[in-house]
Write a structure and sequence with these properties.
single chain, mainly beta, 4 strands, elongated
């Protein structure tokens, strides 16, 4: 997408702890797909930030 477009970030994070198996989550990176939205008179690029996380052992 063109760099001159306004960008709005939305971060979808599972939190910092694994509630199913215990332990903390360590961020390894992120995936950031973008979608184009038209608001009357302008375009906006919505960025959905999806953290890639790995569970670390509890204790």
């Amino acid at each position: 997408m063109p760099q001159h477009l306004d960008r709005q970030d939305q971060v979808l994070s599972p939190g910092k702890e694994c509630t199913r198996w215990g332990g903390t989550l360590k961020t390894l990176g992120e995936g950031v797909p973008e979608e184009l939205e038209y608001v009357p008179g302008r375009f906006i690029a919505n960025r959905i930030v999806l953290p890639l996380e790995l569970r670390q052992q509890a204790g």
